[in-house]
Amino acid sequence: MTNKRPLSPHLQIYQPQLTSLMSILHRLSGVFLSLGSVVLACWLIAAASGAESYQQAQDLLSSWLGLLLLFGWSFALFYHLCNGIRHLFWDIGLGMDIPMVYLSGKLVLVASFALTVLAWWLAL
User: Fold this and answer.
1) How far is it, in rounded angstroms, from Cα 108 to Cα 46?
2) C-alpha closest to that of 90 among 78, 105, 111, 112
3) Distance between CA atoms of 78 and 81, rounded to whole angstroms?
4) pLDDT averaged over consecutive 10-residue blocks of the chain (124 residues)?
5) For burial by CB atoms within 10 Å, which of 47, 78, 93, 124 has the most?
6) What is the pLDDT of residues 36-52, one digit of tens each?
7) pTM of the predicted structure, to 2 decimals
8) Cα of 75 vs its chain's centroid, Å
């Protein structure tokens, strides 16, 4: 009797679920925040280097691409924060049943978008 199925499930078999997508997004947001830290350091160095360097950094960050990246970094920050709080609740054993996992996942996404929009609305 020969079984032709794979020995372990792989990506072609698994269906994307909210929990797996949020886990991947959490890791990606952490990487994106690390890159944003480098940009912040460059901006601070430009500010310390003089008016001309600072103006060049400001011009770059106020361009449409710079604003798009800043918006993405702010969303990554709020997503990583909200999802981290969700994981802290899991660490103490709260919200581990399947309906609550999906509800808290949806709440993290809504809160991340809402906090990002609120921050940008207050900033502008």
Assistant:
1) 35
2) 105
3) 5
4) 66 80 95 96 97 96 96 97 97 95 97 98 94
5) 78
6) 999 999 999 999 999 99
7) 0.86
8) 6
Q: Determine the Cα–Cα distance for residues 123 and 61; give it in Å rounded to an integer.
A: 14
| Residue 63 per-residue DSSP state | S
- Tokens standing for 8? 């372990």
In angstroms, the Cα distances linking 38 to 1, 57, 93 are 57, 13, 35
- The pLDDT of residue 120 is 97
Tokens of 91: 């660490």
Q: Token match 């702010």: residue? A: 74
> What are the residue ranges spanned by the domains of the chain?
20-123
Burial of 60 (0-12, 13-18, 19+ CB in 10 A): middle
Choose the CATH number for 20-123 among 3.40.50.150, 1.20.1300.10, 1.10.10.10, 3.30.310.10.
1.20.1300.10
Find where tokens 């940008």 sit. 120
